[in-house]
Each structure stands twice: as C-alpha cells, then as structure tokens.
Amino acid sequence: GSSWNNCDFEANLCKVLPEFNLQPGWIRRNGQSGMGPPYSDHSGNESAYFLSLSSEMQSSSAALRTRVFLPTDEHHLCQMRFHYWVSQMSGTLIVGLQKDSEDIFTNIWQVSGELRNQWNVNTITINSTEKFEVIFLGMMETQRQGESVAIDDITFSEGC
Question: Fewer CB within 10 Å: C terminus or N terminus of the chain?
Fold first, then answer.
C-alpha cells in the first residue's frame, strides 16, 4: 500500500535508488523506445517507464544499488517486492545483499532464461543484523535481438 517506498520509475529514480546508483548498462525507458521487449511496463502500459539493460552495454553485467538500509529486527520486517522480465536463453537477474562489513555481496535470489516473455513479480524478505544495500545484477551472455532483462516497480516495506 501507500506505506511502501515505491520506485515506479515514472518521474525518475526514487529515494531508495539514488540517481548516481544507476550504473552504466541500466537504462530508464518505456515500451515505445524502439529498443525491443518489453513493450510495456508490468501493468501493460506502453508509455510507462521501467529499467532495462541497455543494448549498448560495455560488459555483460550491470549492477543497480539501493541506498544503505538500517539493520532489520523482529520489529522491523523488511520486505522488497519487484516486477522483473528476463527473456529467454541468455538473461539472468540476481538480487544480492551487500552488508556493511563485507566486500562482496551475498546472492539471495536469482532467475535465468527459460521464462516466457512476460513480467513476473517476486517478494523477498530481507534479514540483516547490520546495515545493508540491495544490489540488482542484470546479466546478458549474448546480445541477441529481442532479448532483455528489465525491472519495474520496486517497493520496500516500512521495516526497511
């Protein structure tokens, strides 16, 4: 509901995804951009915006980092809900947790190819005893026409 911090990408990025955290490789666009699928956002709106991997990516992966969140506890359940599109074969989307004291992020969820070309939704409950960032890592093994990795409507619960 309205209590969730929501990133729908309509105006720009939101408070939990600062502008400078959009690393090269991710692009904010809509389905009418002429960049291939998806041709609409998760609600079917062709002019509504989402993030997708750019076809001009220099490397095969691109990270998207949230701001730093405070530790979670039993009173502050942190849930993150997001819509995702991973087209067939070569696309992968990983969600990771970057904790304050660790150099590398911990993979907490991942999906690869073999999905039909459609938007899906997922909710992840995050537990961390220390400050953390959430990382979305999109990867494309090959740049085939008509393949894409995209994210839309990321929402964080009040406990985050």
Answer: N
pLDDT at position 1 is 45
Q: What residue numbers bound the domain in which 146 lies? A: 5-156
Residue among 44, 42, 62 at smallest CA distance from 53: 62
β-pairing, 149-156 vs 132-140, is: unpaired
Look at residues 61, 26, 59, 23 and name the one whose alpha carbon lies nearest to residue 152: 26
Tell me which residue of 105, 119, 29, 102 sits closest to 65, measured CA to CA: 105
Token look-up 């894409």 returns 148
Tokens of 154: 């990321």
Decide if 64 contacts 17 (C-beta within 8 A).
yes
Q: How far apart are CA 70 and CA 90, in angstroms?
A: 35
The reported pTM is 0.89
CATH at 36: 2.60.120.200
Number of domains making up the chain: 1
